[in-house]
Amino acid sequence: MSVLITGGAGFIGSHTAVEFLNAGYDIVIMDNFCNSKPVVLDRIKQITGKDFKFYKADLLDVASMDKIFEENPDIDSVIHFAGLKAVGESVAKPREYYNNNVTGTLNLCDCMNRYGVKTIVFSSSATVYGDPDEVPIKETAKVGNATNPYGETKVMIERILKDIYISDKEWKVSVLRYFNPIGAHASGLMGEDPNGIPNNLMPYITKVAAGKLPMLHVFGNDYDTHDGTGVRDYIHVVDLARAHLKALQYIEKAGGIDYFNIGTGNGYSVLDIVKAYNDATGIEIKYVIDPRRPGDIAACYADPTKAREVLGWQAEFGIFEMCRDSNNWQSKNPNGYTE
Ligand code: NAD
Ligand code: UFG
């Protein structure tokens, strides 16, 4: 039996591939490298000492997807990461986002159905909660007020998966709503490698720490939070990767469709992260306070009780390890995954 990991060359997919290989699973990875580089596949092999099949394929190219299932009849479940994820870009290129993420997922599900594979773990996001009425956020909170096309694709895909399950109860669907994944593999061999100037907080901070950017721009200090800066639930990518193992094992036994928040339950402000980075690395991050970034919300953090009680998963790493490992990745790979 083997697990297909779509988008397995990406940030979260690559860390998940390592956890599945370490747990003894056979995996097949597919990716079109639109936001990743082939060298990550060597890093996965280097860390685990294990081999796996890889397909350069595209969710939008049905023939390339069929070929994977045709040639690997042992695939019996899918962990589905492949998708575009930049919020700002999604506002500028909505058709590309809806097509890649929504049509791509429909193609994948059609293909799975043709080959009788009906178990899927899907990468959703806390963004489906929009601006939440209350924090910490439970899975029962209202979904569907995403503030940008990227978030809307997650809302739509969640709905599509639910309708597929309703139409055919043989499907087993686990929807994981990630909060803010940061950190890197402790080896320093894998991490997050965004193109250009990072949009997200931690990759920006690591570039400031490395002297590649002059200072952090803190987007607003007048939010209704303990120090006025935005509060988020940061989660170590290795903890997040392990949640997929638990989610797959659970849904294979339990069946049905279920939804889980994957976060630590702790909310840290931007300035908390600046301080934690200094505590973990000794590096002082220069910053300036700028106006709020359009579309940002004050606070977003999880109630992760359900994942703990139902999946038996909880985060093991804290903010110290997240900052330490992000910095370790940046300093060992100053130019990311250059070949
Ligand atoms: P990533 O961009 O590093 O990984 C996604 C991978 O999918 C990339 O390697 C990319 O090349 C591939 N891909 C994209 N479109 C494809 C297509 N049509 N066919 C084949 N491959 C394709 O992103 P990530 O941070 O690892 O995120 C993985 C998933 O988790 C995404 O679905 C993302 O929306 C979701 N997610 C991420 C975050 C986050 O902050 N990183 C938060 C919540 C949810
Ligand atoms: N921030 C700064 N300066 C920066 C970057 C970010 O002050 O240079 C602040 C933001 O204003 C926010 C916090 O840092 O308060 C976190 O911002 P990120 O961009 O790192 O993360 P977001 O919470 O905005 O977005 C992330 C993912 C989205 C996902 C969302 C909810 O990037 O894809 O979480 O899951 F939709």
Describe the protein's architecture and organization:
- With 339 residues, the protein is an alpha/beta fold.
- It has helices at residues 11-22, 39-48, 62-71, 87-92, 94-114, 149-167, 201-209, 237-254, 270-281, 305-311, 319-332; strands at residues 2-6, 26-31, 53-56, 75-80, 119-125, 172-178, 180-182, 216-219, 231-232, 234-236, 256-262, 268-269, 287-290, 299-300.
- The strands form four sheets. A seven-stranded parallel β-sheet has the order 3-2-1-4-5-6-11, with helices on both faces.
- Uridine-5'-diphosphate-4-deoxy-4-fluoro-alpha-D-galactose binds next to helix 7 and strand 8.
Helix/strand layout:
Elements: E1 2-6, H1 11-22, E2 26-31, H2 39-48, E3 53-56, H3 62-71, E4 75-80, H4 87-92, H5 94-114, E5 119-125, H6 149-167, E6 172-178, E7 180-182, H7 201-209, E8 216-219, E9 231-232, E10 234-236, H8 237-254, E11 256-262, E12 268-269, H9 270-281, E13 287-290, E14 299-300, H10 305-311, H11 319-332
Parallel strand pairs: 1-2, 1-4, 2-3, 4-5, 5-6, 6-11, 7-10, 8-13, 9-14
Antiparallel strand pairs: 9-12
Helix pairs in contact: 1-2, 1-8, 3-5, 5-6, 7-11, 9-11
Nicotinamide-adenine-dinucleotide binds near residues 12, 35, 60, 123 and 178.
